[in-house]
Amino acid sequence: MQSIGPQGLHREQGLPPEQFLPAEQPLPCEQLLGGVREFQQHTAPGLQPELARLAREGQSPSQLFITCADSRLVPNVITNSGPGELFTVRNIGNLVPPPDDSVAAAIEYAVEILEVGTITVCGHSGCGAMQSLLHGAHRRDGLARTPLTRWLRHGQDSLQRVRHSPARIAGGGSADALERLCLTNVVQQLDNLAANPSVRRRAAAGGLRLTGLYFDFAKAQTYVLSHNRRTFDPVRPHLESAA
Questions:
Q1: Residue pair 89/35 in contact by the 8 Å Cβ criterion
Q2: What average pLDDT does the segment 6-26 reach?
Q3: How far apart are the first and last CA of the chain?
Q4: 3-class state of residue 125 by DSSP
Q5: What's the pLDDT at 218?
Q6: How far is 183 from 23, CA to CA, in rounded Å?
Q7: How far apart are alpha carbons 223 and 130 in whole angstroms?
Q8: Second label for 168, Cα 20 to 30 Å away, from 57, 72, 161, 234?
Q9: How far apart are CA 95 and CA 122, in angstroms?
Q10: What one-character DSSP code corresponds to residue 204?
Q11: Lowest model confidence (mean pLDDT) among 142-146, 232-236, 237-241
Q12: Are 34 and 57 in contact, with CB atoms under 8 Å apart?
């Protein structure tokens, strides 16, 4: 778990964090609005025709993309996709817990209503949720009734799996405990996904494919789960043939 910094300390004391930002540093809300202004000025004009088409015709994404809420991971960037192409579900640890109505509702909508052809579970390096599981945060008595702790308990199957059947990066050498769990968690969540009734029906009919991805921040590299479901292979660019 991350340590509490100055802003977090002041927040615990009930003081507004903006009082403790350096005078020359913009407030977070100003930074956000500044980005919105940049979008309205430079990006919106070029994007408006496509968004107008989507407004008229509705969405028809081909992919359900389930990933972590980590701010460093931007699905549309790493998949080079645009508006209307990914139906995205994000949560702490990219978990697919069977009893959770929120995730299950999104899966049902994607499969039954949008009729997506692929569902992808995408994990990433240095996942804080997986680190917390390794540290036993889901078992701490003092946190037993918090929403975060209850949510992390959905990752316990991944902890069990990594002990006897860890996933790894093909040709990547030995990985540390956190990387092994981050990789193995993707495989476990795909198993959870396959048990969903809507997914099971569509997959059995041949109309749905399940895929696992893993993104390494430090290397800016995406890996895809192989058919053996034990290793992740690096995704390589297609090199154009020489003229």
A1: no
A2: 50
A3: 53
A4: coil
A5: 97
A6: 42
A7: 18
A8: 72
A9: 10
A10: H
A11: 142-146
A12: no
Phi, psi of 209 (to 5 degrees): -120, 140
Please report where in the chains the tokens 């817990």 appear, as a residue. Answer: 97
For residue 9, pLDDT beyond 90:
no
Q: What percent of the chain has pLDDT over 90?
A: 74
CATH topology of domain 59-227: Beta-carbonic Anhydrase; Chain A (3.40.1050)
- CA distance linking residue 58 with residue 178, whole number of Å: 40
Query: Which DSSP symbol is given to 99?
Result: T
Distance CA 210, CA 121 (A): 8
Tokens of 73: 């991971």
| CB-based contact 88:69 (threshold 8 Å) | no
Q: Find out whether 111 and 208 touch, Cβ atoms under 8 Å.
A: yes
Q: What is the pTM of this model?
A: 0.85
User: Residue 187 is encoded by which pair of tokens?
Assistant: 């495989």
List every span in the chain annotated with CATH 3.40.1050.10: 59-227
| d(C-alpha 47, C-alpha 125), whole Å | 32
- The pLDDT of residue 142 is 55
The answer to whether 111 and 202 are in contact (CB under 8 A) is: yes
**Sequence-ordered strand ranges (E) for the chain:** 63-68, 86-91, 118-124, 168-169, 209-216, 221-225, 231-234
Which residue matches tokens 């960037």? 77
Nearest to 196 by CA among 20, 66, 42, 87: 66
